[in-house]
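pasting for ref. prot 1 ->
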Amino acid sequence: MDRSLKILHLEDLPADAEMVDRVLRKARLQFEKKVVIDRPDFLKALREFQPDIILSDHSLPAFNSLEALKITREEGVHAPFILVTATVSEEYAVNVIKEGASDYILKDRLERLPNAVQNALEHRRTEEELARQRDLQQKLVMETSIQVQEKEREQIGKELHDNINQILAAAKLYLDIATKDDDDSRTEALDKCQRNLNLAMEEIRQLSQSLVAPSLGGIGLDQALRKLLDNFPLSASLHLELDTSSYREDIDDEGIKLTCYRIAQVQLNNIIKHARANNASIILSRVPDRLTLLIRDDGIGFNPAKKTGGIGLRNIRNRVSFYNGTVGLDSAPGKGCTLTVIIPLPPAHAPSTPTAGG
């Protein structure tokens, strides 16, 4: 800290307040200290003095340390709070710590106070840094979420304009022909119109299926992935396999199941649109403490060191990091791509020990 430490000391005995000063100065702490003895002055000091740390005697006239701690937190002041008292029961000290105090020091052991002050301040700085990191992470997740939403809207617009709109325009053209031409031409035009309308309906069904979150309740993740593959609009040249032989018991967490489902959905879309692959495979496995989802293709690949992280991959990483998992990406030009997702499972998700009957 570049400036002097601002210490608010709640103490009604001047001799004890001076004794605390001497101990802190002896430890070469640079500080500015304000001493108060009652509730009104304590409350005023919290608001105006804005202390970095608070030292509090236990018992004062019509006021005590627990009340002081509660007032501190009610005022939104998060400075470390250390109880400095002559006598206090172990039970009371534990209670004050539970309420949020950083430490307690007996007045006959004041030599511990400088270390307690430094430790409390370091702990506070660590908490502030963690809070800052959490805020940055939340902002990144929010930013990525907005980008993903905008990209999905853009893709929906392109799908509607480039595919479905063109199909419906062709259907309208055939209807126009059917209303003007002879019977043979009319029959052919109506047949083509019917095929185009069926194709438009299928395109809409596929688009809706990719956007609406599926309900995985009642079915296993392996079954959900199989259903995804069965309904996926695969190109004729792509051979796709699903291996769930090492996934013998379903997980209970619906959030993890949906995360894995969405990752498979996104990666399969990437493979079909960009990889130019002939073969792709999904391997789902679990052991008691982790779930592994591996998606591999034999497409054109890329250099991960040069490729800028797309929104799709960033979205996958954010989804997995929510469950403290990891994402691995292994690719090279001409060598295809392997995406590996590992999510740790809490003990409650561990499968039960199989019986002798299997």
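and prot 2 ->
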Amino acid sequence: MLAAAAQQEFLDWLRHERRASALTIEAYGTDIGGFLRFLTNHLGQELDLAALADLRLGDFRAWLAEMAAKGAEAATRARHLSAVRSFFRFLRRRHGLPNAELRLLDTPKVRRPLPRPLTRPQARAVAEDIGEESDAAPQQARDVALFTLLYGCGLRISEALALDVRDAPLPAAEAPLRIVGKGDKARIVPVLPVVRAAIAAWLRHHPSPSPESPLFTGARGGRLNPGVAQRTMRGFRRHNGLPEHATPHALRHSFATHLLADGADLRTIQEMLGHASLSTTQRYTSVDETALLRVWHRTHPRG
């Protein structure tokens, strides 16, 4: 069987047996097709299953190297390699194709981008002034409460919008906020008085403050859509000259970065953010080092 026919058989299997989406099938077809075209030129022969079985580690590395030379980022190369590995797993199950070389190939390491926090004045301006974007007092109070909560507690936007009125941290109570985050993992987050005050101010305007109602509501009284909050933030940053990375999630990054700069330890920040791995939280140390070097270069006489 020719390699092109095996590729089509694999795509048909994805379509009919795995019920993969059209976009997924198209992506697999593009990635595997590029791999097979490279091998045809690299080996100088028409490919069949025997040729695929005889591929060596150097052949796979040459393919990845060519993609890198053409400017493909590590994430792109990793995605193409994942598609090829799926293709070879299919060939092994369907046709008994042996090729252990692919298992020896390392996946290109994808560097996660560093978090991009706001400065303290920028984050404070968002939390305090974002309500000015609206002429309606209820919406002003809601937006101030939401963005004060995001910065003051380091929540994801989805976590904040999932809260109900019964979860609201009010001034009369001193209990921390219980958040259920990714993977249904619960965590406890302390709540600043300014956050409690902003929530209380919003609840005075809440259209239906029964315990089971969403804490943050939209125009029709249902749970606020995250797209509305993101749109509000876009408008605020354009009118106030904030950078493009000023998003609701940037307030979470700002929360962690500012805590770290003020001496909070990584384990505590990890718990408050709900990170499963400390390595995820450690990214904020690189952000703080970058800021430190920037100050050093700007202020040192020989910098």
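The chain has a mean pLDDT of 88.
Residues 3-104 form a domain with the DNA polymerase; domain 1 fold (CATH 1.10.150.130).
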